[in-house]
Amino acid sequence: MKRASLGVSVVGVAVLTLAPLTVLAPATAAGDNSGADRVRTAAALRLGDQESLVVRDVVVDANGAEHVRYDRTYAGLRVIGGDLVVHESPAGDVRTVSWASPDRIVVAGTTPAISGQTAADAAARRSGLESGSAAPERVVYASDHKPVLAWETTVTGTAADGTPVRDLVYTDARTGKQLGTRPLIVNANGTGSSLYSGTVGIQTNLSGSSYQLYDTTRGGHRTYDANNSTSTSTGTLMTDADNAWGNGSTSSRQSAAVDAHYGAAVTWDFFKDAYGRSGIRNDGVAAYSRVHYGNSYENAFWDDSCFCMTYGDGGTTFSPLTSLDVAGHEMSHGVTSHTANLNYSGDAGGLNEATSDVFGTMVEFKAANASDPGDYYIGEKIAKDGTYLRRMDNPSADGASVNCWTSATRNLDPHYSSGVGNHLFYLLAEGAGTKTIGGRTHTGTTCNGSSLTGIGRTQAAAIWYRALTTYMTSTTTYPQARDAMVRSAKDLYGAASSQCTATANAWSGVSVSGSETCGGTTPAPSGNLLANPGFESGAVSWSATSGVITSSTSATPRTGSYYAWLNGYGTTTTDTLSQTVAVPSGKSSATLSFYVKVSSAETTTTSAYDTLKVQAVSGGVTTTLATYSNLNKGSSYVQRSLNLNSYIGKTVTVKFLGTEDSSLATSFFVDDTSLTTG
Q1: Among residues 330, 353, 364, 660, which one is catalytic?
Q2: How far apart are CA 218 and CA 237, in angstroms?
Q3: Residue limits of the Peptidase M4 C-terminal domain (predicted)?
Q4: Which of 103, 267, 312, 342 is such that its CA lies 20 to 30 A from the CA of 34?
Q5: Burial of 518 (0-12, 13-18, 19+ CB in 10 A)
C-alpha cells in the first residue's frame, strides 16, 4: 500500500505551564495544579505575579535531560534580556537555571509617559537614520539594566560603507532616555573571498530548459543576483542553459554565485553532520543568498529579517566576498540568532562575532578544499594586499583585536572584542606554540604564560556549540561563557575528562576565570543514550523526513503507538531518521540496537532494489554499519545490534537512510531503538 505523508509537528510556541514543574523535588503528576506547587515553582524561577515564560527552543540530551530556553513576558509585554534556560533532569526535576537577567521583573506601571511615535522620532534623530515601518511596541527592557518600561522602535538607513542598517532601538518610556540598540543586520566587517574555491560540485534544479541555482536537497537554498541594487528585494534567481556555471573570474557574474551557493551547501552539511542541525533554525528550511550587492560594496552581511546572506563585489581593499569562511560566518550569525540570541554589544557582542568566526572556520575545514585549505585566518582569500581580516591564533596581530580579556573588553567593537573568543578557541583546539596549518604559520601564545595542548577542533567546536545552544543567553559575558563551556565539556566528556580540564585551562590562557570546575568522577550517562527511543513522544529528539515518525494505523509498531516508517511509496524516494548523541568516554563497549521489519512488493530473491542503510556520522565522516533491503522482507520485527566501539568518547549521529527505486514499494519499519555502553 502506498502511504500518505504523515507527520507530527514539533515546531511551535508553547507557554510554560508551571503546575507540572517541580523545583529540586520529585516531579508531580501530570495535571497537578496545586497552588503550592505553582507558588514554589514561580518562586524558584523568580517569577512575579505578572510574569510568564514562552518556549523558544528545547535541547534534549541522550539521557533524557532537557534544557528548555524561554523568553519572558511581563503583563503581556515582551521582556528584552529576560530570557533564561531551565535545565531539567531526566525525571523532570528542575536542577539549575541560566539567566540573562536574574532579577524579578517589577516596573512602575505599564502606562508610558511618552508616546511610541515620540520615542521613534527621537531614535531616528539620534542615529541620523529614518523611523522604520514597524509600529512602536511597548516592552520591558532588562538587558544589563534594571527592568524599565520601554518602547521598541526601528530605525533604517544606510551606513557610510553602503551596508543597510535596520536597528531595534529601546527608549525609556518615562524619561525618553535611549537604553540600547540591537542590529537586525549583522555584517562581517569586510570578511570574504574572491573566486578561489576552484571547480566544485553544486546542487542545481532543472526548470523547463533552464538550470537554477536552487538546492532542493538542503532546504531549498537559492542564490540570487542582486543586480548591483541595494534594495531589499531578493533579486533575480541565477539561471544557466548548460549547468556549467561561471568561469573562475569576475568576468562572469555566475562565478561569485557559485562560491556563495557552494559555501551555503558546505555550511548546511557542517551543522547537519556535526550536530544534527537541519538548517539555521533547525526546521529544515534554508536561507537564501544574494550576490552582486551594490557597487564596489566591500562587505557581506547576514540579515535576520529576510533570513538571507548578502555579498558585495569588493572594491579597493577586497575581492568579491563569497568565500567559504564568509559563508559559514554569515549563516552562523543566523544560528546564534535562533539559539542564544547573543546581544551585539558588550562581551555578548564579542561572543556573537567569535561564534561566527569559529563555525566559519569549521566550515572551511569541513570543505577540505585544496584551493582554500582550512586555517585559522579570517578573510585571508579576499584581502587584495595578501593579508587577512582577523587571526584566531593571534588576534592582536590585526592591530585592533585583543588576545586577553579585561573588564574593558566589553567597550570594544564586537569585531575586536571577538579576539578573546577566537583566541580561546584556537588554544583549546590547537594548543600553544607554533605550527603550520593550511600552509600558513600559526602561533598561539597564552596570556598567563602557560603551555597548552589542544584537544582538536572537532571536540572544541562541539563544546562551543553545546554551550551556545544549551547554556548561553542574550547577555552572556566572557566569564559566563567560560563556565558554560566547562559545563558543556563535563556534559559531553565527563567532569574528570581531559577535555574538561583543557577547556578550563584554555580560558585561563585568555585571562578568564569562573566558578565551574572539573575533577571528581562524574558518572557517564547510563542506560539508553538515545532520547525518545520508541518514538512515543512523536518526532521529539529525532531529525526525520516529514511523516517518517508516525502513529498511522496503516501499519503496526512493535510496541506502543508510534514507530518510524521509511519509504513504502513505490516511487523513487529517500527518507532519513537520525539522532546525535555523545557516547561517554571510559567505556569498554558501545552497542546500537533496534528492531526492524521489512515489507516489500518486490518478488526477486537476488536483487536489492530498495535499501535501508544504518550509518554513523562523526567528525564529518559517514560510515555505513549495515544495509538491509527488500531481500530481508518478513512479517515480524527482527532485532539487530551493531558495534559502535570506535565512537566511544565521541559525538556521533546515528542515521537510518532509506532509499527506494521507481517501482514496487518497500517499507522499512524501525522501533524500540537503543544505544548502550558497557
Answers
A1: 330
A2: 17
A3: 340-512
A4: 103
A5: buried
Contact at 8 Å (CB) between 419 and 403? Answer: yes
Examine the residue annotation and report whether 415 is marked as an active-site residue of this protein: yes
Q: Evaluate if residue 195 carries a pLDDT over 90.
A: no
Query: How far is C-alpha 15 from the geometric centre of its chain's CA atoms?
Result: 23
* DSSP line for 615-662: EEEETTEEEEEEEEEGGG--SS-EEEEEE-GGGTTSEEEEEEEEEE-S
- HSE, side-chain direction, 13 A CA sphere, residue 379: 28
Tell me: the pLDDT tens digits for 588-612?
899 999 999 999 998 988 989 999 9
CA distances from 304 to 179, 260, 288, 424 (A): 22, 18, 11, 27
Domains and CATH numbers, the chain: 22-99 (3.10.450.490), 116-183 (3.10.450.40), 205-444 (3.10.170.10), 543-677 (2.60.120.200)
SS3 373: coil
Q: Bigger pLDDT: 510 or 195?
A: 510
Rounded CA separation 57/142 (Å): 21
Rounded distance, CA 669 to CA 676, Å?
Answer: 21
Listed residue (447, 455, 484, 482) closest to 468, CA to CA: 484
Best CA proximity match to 352, nearest among 447, 440, 532, 473: 473
330 is a catalytic site residue: yes
Question: Position of cell 527552543?
Answer: 57
